[in-house]
Every structure is written in structure tokens, then in C-alpha cells.
Fold this protein.
Amino acid sequence: MRNSNNKLKDGPFTAHFKDGSVSVTGQYRDGMKTGAWKYFLLNGRLKATGRYENDLMIGKWKWYRENGELMQTGSFTAGNKSGTWTRYRPNGVLLDEGTFANNKKTGEWRSFDANGKPAKTTRFK
């Protein structure tokens, strides 16, 4: 990414919503996202947190709802969904969980009822 002088962005980065509140914070190196990034909702609460390497999402990420409750967690390898992913209902109860490999669901995925009890299992190749 380039700045207003047509130079590659390098260093800390902050963007704002129209009302002036912070929408995102992070870091650029040689025009690419790197390190820890945080995305915010208009209400000021955290929307997502995670890391980038060479402009690609890596490692564990977390996403949140407007009320601050955890919505989902998942991991990336070189920008592709990988490893365990878990989603939660708006009330915080577990919705489903399973594994991704190279952006595709793989193995056993488990769904849970409104009380968090196992409801269904689906297998992916």
C-alpha cells in the first residue's frame, strides 16, 4: 500500500471512521501489513484482532460482536484458513467447531444446540 506521496507505507497505521473514532490500527512494512492489527466497530468495541505477515493473515484471529461477546476464533496459515475454528452464538454459547485445511473444512465438525450440548456431527474430506 502506498501513502499520499506515492511511497510504500512503512510504520504504524491508524484509520478512522467518519466520526473520527478509530476503525483500525496496525503496522506496515514495505507497503505490506505486518504484526498485530486491531479492527474496531463504530461503537468503539473491538471487531477483530490478529496478525499479518507479508500482507497475509497468520496465526490465531478473534472476531467479536457489537455487544463485545466473542463471535468466532480461527487460525490462518499464509492467508488461508487452517486449524481449529470455533463459532459462538450471540449469547456466548458454542455454536460449532471444526478444522480447516487450506481454506476447506476437513475432518469432523460438531454443531451444538442452544444450550451448548452436542447436536450434530458432520465429516468433511
User: Anything to note?
Assistant: The longest strand covers residues 32-40. The beta strands are 11-16, 22-29, 32-40, 46-53, 56-64, 70-77, 80-88, 94-101, 104-112, 118-124. Residues 96 and 111 are 4 Å apart (CA to CA). DSSP finds no helices and ten strands in the chain.
